[in-house]
Amino acid sequence: MARSLYQPLDLGAALNQQNPFKMLLPLVSCQLVSHMVALFTIGCIVKLSSYNFCINCNSKLNMPDLGNIVDCQNCKASMARKRCPKAFYCKVRLHDEHDRPLHFTLFDKSIRQLVELYNTTNPHDAFELKNLTEYNIKEAFALLEDFKMTYDGSRVINIELNR
Fold first, then answer.
1. Rounded Cα–Cα distance for residues 29 and 40 (Å)
2. What is the value of pTM for the model shown?
3. Which pLDDT tens digits describe the chain residue by residue (163 residues)?
4. Which domain holds residue 110?
5. How do the residues of the chain divide into helix, strand and coil, expressed in percent and rounded to 5?
């Protein structure tokens, strides 16, 4: 008769209960400082895309080719196509002050911050943020001077002018 894998095999070994570990380890508070601040210039835009998002839950919408009504797959809300805001994201190659390349994916908030920085340094050629286009972003990024960016790994935390 074959033994089941679940049947214990008695080898005559006994387990002895051990005394609990009595030495208390000191509590150490660890704070990892992972935010880095550096000066950057934009080397190139690798990819730039736009999408529309739901005004109710902010999720990305699949926009049908026809019709004036859009339905959100996430929250099931229905809204007029013209009311769906547009957002951008892009992959960029940045260069720090030592000319080392770093790759980042920038989302709408960071992209708009960079365009605002361009607008403050070029008020006569400023782009309207409400009607921002992919071409406006490309032009602003190409002409933008050094900027200071705080980041954590590949996540952008804050962008500001280098002053």
1. 33
2. 0.71
3. 555 555 555 566 666 666 666 666 677 666 565 788 888 999 999 999 999 999 999 999 988 778 889 999 999 999 998 888 999 999 999 998 899 998 999 999 999 999 999 999 888 888 998 889 999 999 999 999 889 988 887 678 888 877 6
4. 36-161
5. 20, 35, 45
Q: Is residue 26 part of a domain?
A: no
The encoded tokens of residue 149 equal: 């960016």
d(Cα 107, Cα 90) in Å, to the nearest integer? 7
In a domain, 103, yes or no: yes
Give Cβ neighbours of residue 55 (< 8 Å, ≥ 6 apart): 77, 79, 83, 84, 85
Q: Is residue 72 part of a domain?
A: yes
Residues 6+ apart with CB under 8 A from 79: 54, 55, 56, 69, 70, 72
Q: In total, how many domains does the chain have?
A: 1
Domain presence at residue 25 = no
